[in-house]
Amino acid sequence: MAESVDIVPATLEDLPAISSIWPQSMKFDLMMNFIFPNHLYDPSVPEKAMYNMYARAMQQPNMQFFKAVSRARGDTVGFAGWRREDGNEARDKDYRIRPEWPDGVDAETATLYFGGLMRIEKMLMSGRKHVVLTSLHVLPAYQRKGIGSLLVRYGLETLRFDELPVFLSTQMRGRNFYSKLGWEDADFLDIDLEKWAGPLSGYGVHRSPCMIRPPGRGLEPSKA
């Protein structure tokens, strides 16, 4: 059963809350160890990076953000970001010049990771009307309580994004979650972390699935 939450639009006033949720939900992802080398000790670095990124995104007319607010506590425990593309946008944005990474971010790995995901989206979706689920993050203490599913359902059903193909990128630990909601593997971004960690470090290839949900697939009745 899902935690009792309300799904409501997120605004610029919510930036501090949602930018702090992102690093907490991604805390143990191996890629984050290289993009934000000291994030386990200083979470302010990824928070600042995400704050800047989400501040720009919220000002784009084709972006929509929604938050999950706990009815018991009144605080934001998760959020989702959606971007609608009409198929005519030039997705040639270069992560060598955007965003401006704050101090403490390894620009090389950030460019390789985020830029690589954008290139895959362009390759798969260019020229097609589609939606991108750009973000879906829930505080660790509230995960596995149905909140992520509620945020996804809100976009697909209430906003009718189910009428278009929906692209997303995720981590391997999130792949089964999205598969159950109708997404299918389309490509992968593989990054060999040994380049930064060194040989015999225990790090291998980090894989990020890129998935597409066909339009009109529908959802099973919610059990929340």
What does this structure look like?
The protein is of the alpha+beta class and 224 residues long. It has seven helices and seven strands; from the N terminus they run βαααββαβαβαβαβ. A seven-stranded mixed β-sheet has the order 1-2-3-4-5-7-6, sandwiched between helices. The longest helix has 19 residues, at 107-125. The chain starts with a strand and ends in an 11-residue tail after the last strand.
Low-confidence stretches: none
Number of helices: 7
Strand arrangement across the biggest beta sheet: 1-2-3-4-5-7-6
Proportion of residues in extended strands: 15-25%
H/E series: EHHHEEHEHEHEHE
Oligomer: single chain
Shape: globular
Strand count, sense and closure of the main sheet?
A: 7 strands, mixed
Query: How far apart lie the N and C ends?
Result: 5 Å
Topology of helices and strands:
Layout (H helix, E strand, L loop, with lengths): L4 E5 L5 H11 L6 H4 L8 H15 L4 E8 L5 E10 L21 H19 L4 E9 L8 H12 L7 E4 L2 H9 L3 E9 L1 H4 L7 E9 L11
Parallel strand pairs: 4-5
Antiparallel strand pairs: 1-2, 2-3, 3-4, 5-7, 6-7
Helix pairs in contact: 1-3
